[in-house]
Design a protein that fits this description.
single chain; two-stranded parallel sheet; mainly alpha; 12 helices; Protein SirB1 N-terminal domain-containing protein; globular; 273 residues; 2 domains; 7% strand; SirB1_N; two-stranded antiparallel ribbon
Length: 273
């Protein structure tokens, strides 16, 4: 595989068992493709410093809600972290270094900052992939409280999540148990990259869209929709042999796909169907 050094480091990081993947490092390797001179240690040290400062402010009683209150005060009141409501699709919102520098991000990257600091003060939290939004919660059995890092660390319960979904989709949405399931580290990183994929696609930056898809496939090599999308991007970028390989692979694995007719027509155009 002919990877850039940032891609190689990302690949090495995600080869470990899921629980050993360092999310902050992996996220910074994602950013390093955009910023080749990015100094990882600078931003890892920034997270360490923030955690040390929070540690000094923690209450003597380490009840989860008290700890969340301390984290919220530090991150949002003292440091001024905020959700980027006005320019949500700015790609900088998806790069951990930019989020730390600008004190601004989207739900998943602000959640990452929150998780990393919480972990360093021995208050582990986990990601929750709510459709259309990303939350976190304390990694404590049977504790059903959720934190919205995008909205100043608002504490939510399952009923609040139900209301948030209904508001986002502007119609009643049933809160299925899987909506509140914990995401793995690989799923966390794939969701970050999926955000970048659609941002760059919207900007018609096909090379950067392809780079995001390629990294999603490093995480999940058998993700057939990503293989299809990589094939379509190859086609648009004029890499026809690679496009044919991916699109034929997609059809062989998902012969009854809804878009099979379109893909076959495209392969016929390329002289391969």
């Amino acid at each position: 595989m002919n990877f850039s050094s940032a891609r190689q480091y990302f690949y090495q990081e995600i080869q470990q068992p899921d629980e050993y993947i360092n999310l902050a490092k992996a996220a910074l390797y994602i950013a390093q493709e955009e910023y080749p001179n990015l100094d990882l240690e600078e931003y890892l040290n920034a997270l360490n410093t923030m955690a040390q400062e929070v540690q000094e402010r923690l209450p003597t009683s380490r009840y989860p809600l008290r700890l969340i209150q301390s984290l919220n005060q530090y991150l949002y009141d003292d440091l001024g972290f905020t959700g980027n409501h006005s320019n949500y699709y700015d790609p900088r919102n998806s790069f951990l270094n930019d989020v730390i520098d600008r004190r601004m991000g989207i739900p998943i990257t602000l959640a990452l900052v929150y998780l990393e600091i919480a972990q360093r003060i021995d208050f582990p939290m986990v990601g929750i992939g709510l459709p259309g939004h990303f939350l976190i919660r304390p990694d404590i059995p049977d504790m059903e409280i959720f934190v919205d890092a995008f909205n100043r660390g608002e504490v939510m319960f399952a009923e609040d999540c139900q209301e948030r979904l209904t508001h986002m989709f502007q119609q009643p949405v049933s809160l299925k148990p899987e909506f509140l399931a914990t995401v793995s580290n690989r799923q966390f990183l794939a969701r970050m990259l999926t955000n970048l994929k659609y941002i760059y696609l919207k900007q018609q930056d096909l090379a950067k869209t392809l780079a995001a898809v390629e990294r999603i496939l490093l995480l999940f090599p058998l993700a057939m929709l990503e293989i299809r999308d990589r094939g379509l991007l190859y086609y648009q970028l004029g890499h026809h042999p690679q496009a044919v390989e991916d699109l034929q692979n997609y059809l062989s694995k998902v012969p009854d796909a809804e878009d099979a007719v379109v893909i076959k027509r495209l392969l016929a155009e390329l002289g391969k169907e």
